[in-house]
Amino acid sequence: MQRRLAACLLLCVPLLANAAALDELKLLSELPVSGVSGGNLSGLAWCDGALWAVSDRDDQQLYRLESDESQWQATAETFVAPPAPDVRLPWGLRMRSWVAGLVRGGELDFEGLSCDAAGNRYLLSEAKAAVLQLPVVGEPNWLKLPQGQVRQARASGMLLHYNSLLEGIAVDPAGERLYLAAERMRRGLLVVHKQRSTWRCTGGCVLFSEAGTEPAPAQLGEKEQPRDFSGLSFHNEKLFTLERQAHRICRRSLGNGQVERCWSFAAEALTPERRYPPSYGLAEALWVDQGGAWIGVDNGRFSRADGESRPIIWRFAAPKGGWGSRP
């Protein structure tokens, strides 16, 4: 028994050390975004040579972003989404999302954005637990995802609570693998594969799910917070999760979603002038590429300590050795 305990401790020591002292990402630029409704920036993606954003308050547009030295300027591209599919969410969840959409705007509650190499865009609706495709050619359409996806997610303890449903989306360059992130209580990752023209769960839709809490960064007093995902990105055959409460980006395995390495952005995000009145994290959008990571801050209508009231996009440099580097 003692030998087993000693072996377990030896295996756990590197993981604990990594969690306690993550490498900090270097901030390259910080620009506010003008022209996004109410400051609600919920998704980012680099498509067709430009950065695009989506807001959870807009059901009929996404934004192409162009920057100068002072800001990102958002230009709206409009679309008309057909009626969303019924994925068999419980009546109570559907009604609460419907009422929230009436009160604050954004009945579809778009919480994520991704694109494939061909330029097709994919918008994740949290309220409908569904994915809207904006194809390069043709009209917007909802992907016909497997009926068992939501059922499997709920059986694993995910998608049970209002405003804690799907929060991140990532698609591979070929547009044949689609990954979704469940936000919290429990958080987890789902995957579906495209076979010809049909999306299927190959070996199950759920990669993994987990509950529990973990401490916030030292700048926030290390108060325990629920584990969460607020953004998801696919890069170089790995998944990258934006973990809002912990103020970090983690690289995860495509096969089982297990964490391989994490990097913190707390040192830059939590400087005194960048603090917001809410004590929880506001980083909502993530796009990872070879050169670094784009992180979008959904500030709602809050102003931060320096008076900036627009949403913010940070550009962080890739870690030394690249995103595939070992601890």
From TrEMBL:
Stretch forming the signal peptide: 1-19
Keyword Isomerase set for record: yes
Domain Phytase-like span(s) in chain numbering: 39-185
The keyword GTP-binding is annotated on this UniProt entry: no
Keywords annotated in UniProt: Isomerase, Signal
InterPro entries according to UniProt: Phytase-like_dom
SUPFAM superfamilies: YWTD domain
GO MF entry, a single one: isomerase activity
Record-linked Pfam families: Phytase-like
Protein name: DNA topoisomerase IV
